Amino acid sequence: MSDLHNLLEKAYRTNDLTKKEITYLLENHSDEDREELYTYALKIKQKYYGNKVYLRGLIEFSNICRQDCLYCGIRVSNTKVQRYRLTPEEILACCGQGYKLGYRTFVLQSGEDLWYTEEMLVELLQAIRKTYPEAAITLSIGERRTETYQSLFAAGADRFLMRHETASRELYEKLHPTMRFEDRRACLNALKDIGYQVGAGFMVGLPGQTNADLAADLCYLKEFQPDMIGIGPFIPHSETPLDAEKGGTLEDTLVMVALARLLIPDSLIPATTALGTLNPQGRELALKAGANVVMPIITPMSVRKQYALYENKIGGDDPPEDCRYGLESRIQAAGFIVDLSRGDSRQFIAGK
Ligand code: SAH
Questions:
Q1: What is the pTM of this model?
Q2: What CATH number has the domain bearing residue 134?
Q3: Which residues line ligand 1 (CB under 6 A)?
Q4: Scanning 27, 37, 177, 311, which has its CA 20 to 30 A from the CA of 305?
Q5: Phi-psi label, residue 337: left if phi above 0, alpha if psi -120 to 50, beta otherwise
Q6: What pLDDT digit, counting tens, does each position of 298-314 carry?
Q7: Residue having the nearest C-alpha atom to atom 10 of ligand 1
């Protein structure tokens, strides 16, 4: 038996690997080892969550951003983007559409757009909470003051997605000229302390990213114990400084998804839109490698193409109903069952 087999078996049995072991695994695995890894990850997912796949309606409500992340298509320096903002009324209407389609989690994502003041967001959250009391509300709006996070939580937000992007300080600083490594982590800690279900995560295939960096990403997640983990391939955007870079591969991303499932077994892991963009079967393959969430886009068609973090994003032409039912049949064809409940993390339910 190979040493890789023993490592994978250990990961399956103990949900624990050292950084050295992860790096070794990333450097040395064969195609067969990869299949074995996916099989273990799927088994662990089934043990914790069965065959359920949770759906979240994603509303991309503004592509205006004050930050300048080198990889991102909506960075402030990209003057070619047509910018938009949805009004609170439009966002609420979008939730209504999502609700009708059965979604019980709304994810409100945007660039870092301070036009939406704390007061505006509080009012919006209260309105969503009042109209849809049983729905979960997830924010993904980047860095704000701790007091703001507190007010938003008090107003009804349940969850917050903020990828740590990369656990390598050096790489983080290169990619985020307007941001600080410590701030991102401080925000994640603050969100957790306040009581949000928190999602962290990272991109795979960033320029200069090593296997040791990716191992560090998993170790950071293991230590932080997020409720949700977003992992997607980096996809170069032509209007950014990284346009000529290579981007992440399907296999490398699936390996990271599977390892995240083994190391943080009770987390909620989306099969990301970026994976679906990279490969038509990307999301299904992620579900078979340990992912258990899909986030269909319900952003209004009129602005949808403008929320281009990367190009050729899937779903740009599919109205919300098509996304909803098309996805459901694909999820079923892959052998899973759509679950339309709030889908809280097991960690969160256990701590309640
Ligand atoms: N402003 C919010 C939302 C960010 S967009 C925040 O700061 O959290 C959501 C995620 O898209 C980012 O966290 C990043 O990991 C990913 N992303 C951005 N540009 C990308 C690209 N070119 N390829 C793949 N993923 C990208």
A1: 0.97
A2: 3.20.20.70
A3: 71-72, 109, 111-112, 140-142, 162-163, 165, 203, 232, 234-235, 237, 274, 309-310
A4: 177
A5: beta
A6: 999 999 999 999 999 98
A7: 163
